[in-house]
């Protein structure tokens, strides 16, 4: 059987790698992929991104199922187009993907279906937005309505910063049409958790919990990014909290969409804030797997991924069985110089070849590529080609052990200007330390 994965980042490398391990899979094509997917056994990159050409390729190659990684093809209606062509594809339709593509759609949906989230107001008029800022306590969160590649959210710690964000979006049009309407919402205090499920529109299969690290620098400082690292499981999600999230958030989302005449199939990512008293509230929805959460999650997945995707596509997800490695998986992102504003490209990456050989033998780590390509004088060097370059992902018996092992591997990889956070997993390490001290 042949499969097609849409996308070229670390999430797609992890998905394609995991799918390629299935004994029933002959080849996984990745469109467009990266240097990691180019070198991975069982994977092949194709340089196609336009939806009509992807449909033509999938038809010609008899692709059994296509799996969509990033949000932009979903927003463009790739699922609708593939289904219209009679092709099997895993992901939400353009209408369903509005949960991610429009912050206002998501907020109004949650309000309508009584899903816990931060209080908010929506604006197109900058004067009214500025007046709102003066009337409400700081911090405030300003969000562009549309897709903005991770640049559409500002956590304003002062009124000046909030006013500046409003002006940048509504007056100066920094994000174009994505920021022509904004929401301003209350700032939620607590612990952030990523909660991801698969659904066929009727049945829901939760994946393991995870936590990512959005800020560029240690101590959760610096600008927001797409994610500088992640680990799974998030130890502070207790069984009772897990049940609360399913009962108050995930089930109402899927049922609410059905009530609104929308059948949602695909991965659904709920970015949550666990507030005081262990109450979960929704920060955002993504209509896909998270990146870099996917990398640790796929490393922990012991089950064959293909049957899970098949059940989800065929509407039989209630029949799926899933098994996880009990160990912690932790991924450290290595980012390019200048990321997130202006990442530099074409820096040669050293130290990968020896680790690629070692990872095949060890089986307890994998280096997933994101912003990489083949370059150099002879075209056979791995070079940087985007903001987040690699995600070094390791299994360990605790968050601390996985953390130590991941950073030991990171020391072997070099490229000019590499940016790395050194505290990935710090909340989990502190939580496990505190739990251990309570027991002793």
Automatic annotation (TrEMBL):
Required co-factor? Mn(2+); Mg(2+)
What are the GO BP annotations of this UniProt entry? Answer: 'de novo' IMP biosynthetic process; purine nucleobase biosynthetic process
- Does the keyword Phosphoprotein belong to this entry? no
- Catalytic activity reported: 5-phospho-beta-D-ribosylamine + glycine + ATP = N(1)-(5-phospho-beta-D-ribosyl)glycinamide + ADP + phosphate + H(+)
EC numbers listed for it are 6.3.4.13
Residue ranges of the ATP-grasp domain? 107-314
Q: In which pathway does it act?
A: Purine metabolism; IMP biosynthesis via de novo pathway; N(1)-(5-phospho-D-ribosyl)glycinamide from 5-phospho-alpha-D-ribose 1-diphosphate: step 2/2
Keywords, sorted A to Z: ATP-binding, Ligase, Magnesium, Manganese, Metal-binding, Nucleotide-binding, Purine biosynthesis
Q: Which domain of life, per UniProt? A: Bacteria
GO MF annotations in UniProt? ATP binding; metal ion binding; phosphoribosylamine-glycine ligase activity
Q: Which family does it belong to?
A: Belongs to the GARS family.
What protein name is recorded for this chain? Phosphoribosylamine--glycine ligase
Q: Which organism is it from?
A: Nitrosomonas oligotropha
């Amino acid at each position: 059987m042949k499969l097609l994965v849409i996308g070229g980042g670390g999430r797609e490398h992890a998905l394609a790698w995991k799918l390629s391990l299935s004994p029933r899979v002959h080849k996984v094509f990745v469109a467009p992929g990266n240097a990691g997917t180019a070198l991975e056994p069982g994977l092949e990159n194709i340089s196609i991104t336009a939806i009509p050409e992807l449909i033509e390729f999938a038809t010609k190659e008899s692709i059994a199922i296509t799996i969509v990684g990033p949000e932009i093809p979903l927003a463009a209606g790739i699922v609708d187009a593939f289904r219209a062509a009679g092709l099997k594809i895993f992901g939400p339709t353009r209408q369903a993907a509005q949960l991610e593509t429009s912050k206002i759609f998501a907020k109004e949906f949650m309000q309508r279906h009584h899903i816990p989230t931060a209080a908010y107001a929506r604006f197109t008029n900058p004067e009214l937005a500025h007046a709102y800022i003066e009337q409400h306590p700081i911090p405030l969160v300003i969000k562009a309505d549309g897709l903005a590649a991770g640049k559409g959210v500002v956590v304003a710690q002062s009124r000046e910063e909030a006013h500046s964000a409003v002006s940048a979006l509504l007056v100066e049009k920094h994000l174009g049409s994505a920021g022509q309407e904004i929401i301003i919402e209350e700032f939620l205090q607590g612990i952030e958790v990523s909660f991801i499920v698969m659904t066929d529109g009727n049945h829901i299969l939760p994946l393991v919990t995870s936590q990512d690290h959005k800020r560029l620098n240690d101590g959760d400082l610096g600008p927001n990014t797409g994610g500088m690292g992640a680990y799974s499981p998030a130890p502070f999600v207790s069984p009772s909290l897990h049940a609360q999230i399913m009962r108050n958030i995930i089930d109402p989302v899927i049922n609410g969409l059905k009530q609104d005449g929308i059948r949602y199939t695909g991965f659904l990512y709920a970015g949550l804030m666990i507030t005081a008293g262990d109450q979960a509230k929704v920060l955002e929805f993504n209509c896909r797997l998270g990146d870099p959460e996917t990398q640790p999650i796929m490393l922990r997945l012991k089950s064959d991924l293909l049957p899970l995707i098949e059940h989800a596509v065929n509407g039989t997800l209630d029949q799926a069985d899933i098994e996880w490695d009990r160990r912690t998986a932790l991924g450290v992102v290595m980012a390019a110089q200048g990321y997130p504003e202006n990442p530099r490209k074409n820096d040669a990456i050293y130290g990968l070849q020896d680790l690629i050989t070692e990872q095949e033998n060890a089986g307890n780590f994998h280096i997933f590529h994101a912003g990489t390509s083949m370059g150099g004088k002879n075209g056979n060097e791995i070079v940087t080609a985007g903001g987040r370059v690699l995600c070094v992902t390791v299994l360990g018996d605790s968050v601390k052990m996985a953390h130590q092992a991941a950073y030991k591997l990171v020391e072997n990889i070099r490229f000019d200007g590499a940016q790395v956070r050194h505290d990935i997993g710090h909340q989990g390490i502190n939580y496990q330390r505190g739990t251990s001290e309570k027991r002793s």
